[in-house]
Design goal:
3-stranded antiparallel beta sheet, 2 helices, 33% strand
Length: 294
């Protein structure tokens, strides 16, 4: 897979290594898409071409590879996103915060904390950034006086959405990237077909083999994103996925942030958008508005 303007150098091995004539030629089935120059191939235009490597010793031996020239990845502030045809025009990132491919889990975060962890961190009230050692002593994002730390002398803030400085997606990626709201998770669920990919049901998404997670496919554009499980293993003994929103669960308890979760109960697939203890760990899938340059 190449982008227009790129070039690669092909590597071909002649066997046996004792062959007298190791000279090879390279040719393209469509020079308007990919042209050859010795071992170099140049992406000219969008499309697909087959490159044939041919022995010149009269043996007739050949080898081929297929090259697809695709548009440059759709990027915002250096990070790739997907157009899922959502009514709000929200664009969803192709991978989690702290990951470089859809198949990687990425970093884990407490709700409203911008420090991510891969392991070895105790996610509990004692370590939570927005309380004084207890979930009943919140210091930010609270609309219930029963959970507010009055010893601070500050009035309860009644904030229901994360400020930019507490939004890990915005802090890490900058630009217009941020964590999705509760409403945006619901929009994603309502406008996508969801398929659970097990280890025995792998698919390529964005050119990467994905499994043990949820494939979200747009009902309008057909584009997909993949949500990896939080603690997936190579087997089909699965865990579940926890993905944070930027929204406080103000209707239930200020101790909870809203998250999207999915899991298998036996052979039955389940998904919910509900409250989850803020100090516990979850994954983050950034979103951004439709870029003006798109």
């Amino acid at each position: 897979k190449m982008c227009p303007g790129e070039f690669w150098v092909l590597i071909a091995t002649v066997l046996p290594t004792t062959a007298d004539n190791k000279t090879l030629t390279f040719e393209s089935s469509n020079n308007k898409v990919v042209r050859t120059e010795g071992r170099k191939i140049f992406a000219v235009a969008l499309g697909t071409a087959t490159i044939t490597c041919r022995a010149t010793d009269g043996s007739g031996v050949t080898a081929t590879c297929q090259v697809t020239v695709s548009p440059d990845p759709t990027l915002h502030n250096g990070h790739e996103y997907v157009d899922l045809g959502l009514p709000s025009l929200t664009r969803w990132a192709t991978c989690n915060l702290g990951a470089d491919t859809p198949e990687n889990t990425g970093m884990r975060f407490a709700w409203g904390d911008t420090v991510g962890y891969t392991g070895g961190h105790a996610f509990n009230e004692a370590n939570y950034v927005h309380c004084n050692g207890s979930g009943s002593l919140l210091t930010k994002y609270c609309n219930d006086i029963n959970y507010w730390d009055t010893s601070t002398g500050l009035p309860m803030d009644n904030k229901l959405e994360l400020d930019p400085e507490d939004d890990a997606a915005h802090v890490w990626w900058g630009g217009d990237w941020r964590m999705p709201t509760k409403a945006e998770w619901k929009e994603l669920v309502d406008n996508c077909d969801m398929t659970y990919l097990s280890y025995n049901k792998q698919e390529k998404i964005g050119g990467v083999v994905c499994y043990n997670g949820l494939k979200m496919t747009s009902k309008t554009t057909g584009n997909s994103i993949f949500l990896k499980e939080s603690l997936a293993t190579i087997s089909d003994v699965v865990d579940d996925g926890h993905y944070w929103s930027s929204t406080l669960d103000g209707d239930s308890s200020s101790r909870f942030g809203i998250h999207f979760t999915f899991y298998l109960n036996g052979r039955i697939y389940n998904q919910h958008i509900n409250g989850y203890s803020r100090e516990l760990d979850g994954l983050i899938r950034p979103v951004c508005p439709k870029p003006t340059a798109e």
